[in-house]
Amino acid sequence: MKNFKLLSLLSVILLFGVVLLGCSSVSSLSKQGTISKETVFDFYNKVQLDQTKDQVDIELGIVPTESTQLKNVFNYSNEDTGYGVSILLNESGLVISKTLIYPTSKDIAFLTAKAVTQEQADKITDGMSYNEVKSLLGSEGTEINGTQIPFEDNKVSYIRVWVNDDESMIQVVFGTEGTVNNVMFYE
Predict the structure, then answer these.
(1) Are the beta carbons of 46 and 62 closer than 8 angstroms?
(2) Taxonomically, which superkingdom (predicted)?
(3) Please, are residues 40 and 83 in contact by the beta-carbon 8 Å criterion?
(4) Angle CA(94)–CA(21)–CA(138) in degrees, nearest 5?
(5) What DSSP letter does each residue of 61-89 carry, written as one string?
(6) What is the pTM of this model?
(7) What is the 3-state secondary structure (H, E, C) of 82-97?
(8) How far is it, in rounded angstroms, from Cα 155 to Cα 15?
């Protein structure tokens, strides 16, 4: 039952991320080939779970847009790069989830050291550690979401992706114990 609740919550978070990606503008920097890991994660790394929205506003220095589709969701995008972060606030007004905003999956593909395949995804099983997955795939992957799970004492679950140049990718959900909870391959 606990895994079902976790997967349900993470499904909402993933849907929220997909909605964001569809709304993001194309990165001018990625077209020029001058994008860096620091640029991609500039806003994402500045946001910490348990911050207030006011603290995030001050840290990022821009006015967010509020989601019209989800309550307590605010999007912070750098207009010059197309990268940013989306936050979800709990009832107390604290950040409980942050999701990386990026123009397209292709715009983060350069963060994956080597191509990944469906066959590799099939070898990833529930309960594997992050280090096992990293070893299998040949790189650390890209963290695109961190979410506190309220019914798990606010421990954090993470989502990482390994993206190919053709935008196919492996997405792995690491549960609050730090082990694989779900894996998907997208073509």
Answers:
(1) no
(2) Bacteria
(3) yes
(4) 90
(5) -SPPEEPSSSTTEEEEE-TTTS-EEEEEE
(6) 0.85
(7) CCEEEEEECCCCEEEE
(8) 21
User: Letter for the amino acid at 10?
Assistant: L
DSSP classification of residue 24: P
Query: What is the mean pLDDT of each successive set of 10 residues along the chain, which is 187 residues long?
Result: 49 46 43 79 98 98 96 97 97 97 96 96 98 96 97 95 98 97 97
- State the DSSP H helix or E strand holding residue 123, giving kind and residue range, or none if neither: helix 118-123
Question: Using CA atoms, how far apart are residues 168 and 9, in angstroms rounded to an integer?
Answer: 24
**Interstrand relation of 142-149 and 65-66 (parallel, antiparallel or unpaired):** unpaired
Domain ranges, ordered by start, for the chain: 2-186
What CATH number was assigned to the domain covering residues 2-186?
Answer: 3.10.450.730
Token representation of residue 61: 């220095």
Q: Which helix (H) or strand (E) holds 146?
A: strand 142-149
